[in-house]
Amino acid sequence: MKDTFTRCIKKGAYLTIGLFFVISCDTRKPTTPTLEQYYSENVDSLVYQLQLLEKSNDLASIQARYRKSRMYFKRLEPIMQFTEVENYETLNQPNLLQVEEEDQTNIRIQQPEGFQVIEEEIFSNEIDLEFLKSKINFIISRIQLMKKNNSVEKMKPHHILLAVRTSIISVATTGVTGFDSPAALHSLTDAKNVYQSLSTILSINESAFTDSSLFEEWKNEIDATLSDLDSDFESFDRFHFIKNHTNKQFDLWNQTVKDWGVTIPIELALKNDATTLFSRNSFNINYFSGQDALESTKDLIELGKELFYDKNLSGTNQMSCGSCHQPELAFTDGQVKSIGLNEKALLRNAPTLKYVAYQSDFFYDKRAGNLEGQMVNVVNDENEFHSDLSKLFNYVNNNTKYMEQFQLTLGLDSVSDYQIRQSIAVYIRSLAPFSSKFDRNIRGEEETFTQEELKGANLFMGTAGCATCHFLPFFNGTVPPRWKETELENLGVPVTAENNTLDTDQGRFNVYSTEERKSFFKTPTIRNISLTAPYMHNGVYNSLEQVIDFYNAGGGEGMGIHVPLQTLPPDSLHLSDADLNALIAFMKTLNDEDDY
User: Fold this and answer.
1) Percentage of the chain with pLDDT > 70?
2) pLDDT score, position 229
3) pLDDT of the residue at 20
4) What architecture does CATH give domain 286-429?
5) Is 590 helix (H, G, I), strand (E, B) or coil?
6) Do 286-429 and 437-588 show the same overall fold?
7) CATH of segment(s) 437-588
8) Do the Cβ atoms of 469 and 340 come closer than 8 Å?
């Protein structure tokens, strides 16, 4: 059958596989391809279109061939994103310098590659054809290597289902936002191609369904999704897309796992039984915290909370974690820069501890890899706890009340400084309730969003570009769908709100002295943002209006500051006053309604 199928394709031509069936040229009867055939034919078509793109010289044909290539790339995305994740991410990476810093002696700097690089080149004012051809040839070589090494035939039913869910997540969190189509904004067309591919993949596996009505539900849901995606980038309703389609597809996915009788042997960031992206029960905390993190229990959370507010943990008995992270301010302190011992201002503004569980590194410059390591810096800093780990150990182990609690929670008569820090971390990681008005509405639990809030949500996830750095569902820089890395950005933040001078804090550069990381800072969450003023790493802005004006202007470069390697596009967003007000109204819906 495979040889017959292959002979149907003339050399150099490309195959368009229908939504559910292809026609065999020998029999003229409907037949379903295998997943491997579907993958292979679309790879061949992608390479063919890229080769035509590489030979094109006029702008119209270059852009048309790019769109055609992009179509096949997106059709392949559900499979590539699962079986060839590292290669896929290389081909889909932002058009930004790639810097990897393992340690002081292992720093790798690479120019970006992939589709976003090509897109920004061909949709700019002038095209460098030699540069373009080199980038196209890189993609061709990488795609051919991926085909040679592909393991599609080894995909088991649970792999296929995980690949389907990963694509659903990608479309909702990055696909429809413009994250990977920043210049052409072909995001909705891309999303349609992904969903058409999901239709084909499910059709290929139709025989796995024991309940035929469930398969029909999938077909109807994808048809409805494609219909809603038939919109323009500016007016597309992303909020209701997620609410009505992404959530529905999670439900169908969970039903399909049961219907297929599948056991999923591994759990990564998202729990295997998650019903939405917007619930504290949806995520596997150990994925983010590390496998040696203590298991969260109610008693251990309470113990960690007591330690969090205990000033006796500091060398001078004057500071606790709660000194700079106050619950009524969403665990910030309201200061431009936090005030340490002897009323000395610390280096930076205190970030919120809400949702810090869902990030890969800590401090604005990412110098600590986990919460437990972050606490070491705080304990040793002479302007904060001004202590050391041995004093921390001695104080807790000589405290009868604490030792009774550790005996109750961990069964230990003595605890190490690391276990003390682990206990505090358990409390901090619990500060992620997903209880905001936004969460309740997007989960479909209530219908209380105003039209202005809805407009702001769609601006945030669409034309304002906010969600291309503050990714859903955490609204921080942790990139879905793998949630493996929290991004650094260079925005060109000024010294004061009144001047056009770049802030002197060099951010990540201070860690390894990498020139390409000057003025780079971690992207924090904006959940609870209306409670966490002042804003930015240096507390330069007192209001959300000022913050949005800064982004609307194009960051530092847009304001006239010279900012080498600014990652924020320097062009104005051209947002109106009504747009700005809508964005603020939406961001206020991100406040949690809980009591910590």
Assistant:
1) 95
2) 98
3) 41
4) Orthogonal Bundle (1.10)
5) coil
6) yes
7) 1.10.760.10
8) no
Q: What's the one-letter identity of residue 48?
A: Y
Architecture field, domain 2-266: Up-down Bundle (1.20)
DSSP assignments along 461-511, one per residue? HTTT-GGGTSBTTTTBSBPTTTT--BPEE----BSSTT---B-S--BTHHH
Please, how many CA atoms are within 13 Å of residue 433, restricted to the half-sphere of its CB? 13
pLDDT bracket for residue 592 (50, 70, 90): very high
Contact criterion met (CB below 8 Å) for 176 and 238: yes
Three-state helix/strand/coil letters over 36-92 = HHHHHHHHHHHHHHHHHHHHCCCHHHHHHHHHHHHHHHHHHHHHHHHHCHHHHHHHC
pLDDT band for position 596 (50/70/90)? Answer: low
- Estimate the crossing angle of helix 400-410 against helix 389-397, to 10 degrees: 90
Look at the block and give the residue holding tokens 């035939």: 153
Q: What is the three-class DSSP state of 575?
A: coil
Q: What six digits make up the tokens of 324?
A: 């700079």
Packing angle between helix 417-429 and helix 298-308, nearest 10 degrees? 110
pLDDT tens per residue across span 475-534: 999 999 999 999 999 999 999 998 889 999 999 999 999 999 999 999 999 999 999 999
Contacts of 251 (CB under 8 A, 6+ apart): 275
Nearest CA-CA partner of 393 in 336, 461, 313, 473? 313
On the question of pLDDT at 282 being above 70, the answer is yes
Q: Is the preceding omega at residue 433 within 30 degrees of 0, hence cis?
A: no
Q: What length does the chain have?
A: 596
pLDDT value of position 290:
83
The tokens for 89 are 């991410």
- 547-579 b/e with 16+ CB inside 10 Å = b? bbebbbbbbbbbbebebeebbbbbeebebeeeb
Residue 594, Ramachandran bin (φ over 0: left; ψ between -120 and 50: alpha; else beta): beta
**CA–CA separation, 517 vs 506, rounded Å?**
8
Q: From the CA atom positions of the chain, what is the Rg in Å?
A: 26
Q: What does each C-alpha distance from 506 to 108, 227, 535 come to in angstroms? A: 19, 47, 17
Report the SS3 class of residue 520.
strand
Residue 85: exposure state from Cβ atoms within 10 A (0-12, 13-18, ≥19)? middle
Every domain of the chain and the residues it spans: 2-266, 286-429, 437-588
Q: CB within 8 A of 164, min separation 6: which ones?
A: 78, 198, 201, 202, 253
Residue 400: burial class (beta carbons within 10 Å; 0-12, 13-18, 19+): exposed
Classify residue 576 by its DSSP letter: -
Residue 585 tokens read as: 């109204």
pLDDT at 19 over 50: no
> Is-above-0.70 flag for pTM?
yes
Residue 71, Ramachandran bin (φ over 0: left; ψ between -120 and 50: alpha; else beta): alpha
- 3-state SS track over 137-200: HHHHHHHHHHHHCCCHHHCCHHHHHHHHHHHHHHHHHCHHHCCCCCCCCCHHHHHHHHHHHHHH
* Mean pLDDT, rounded, for 150-156: 90
Q: How far apart are CA 484 and CA 179, in angstroms?
A: 17
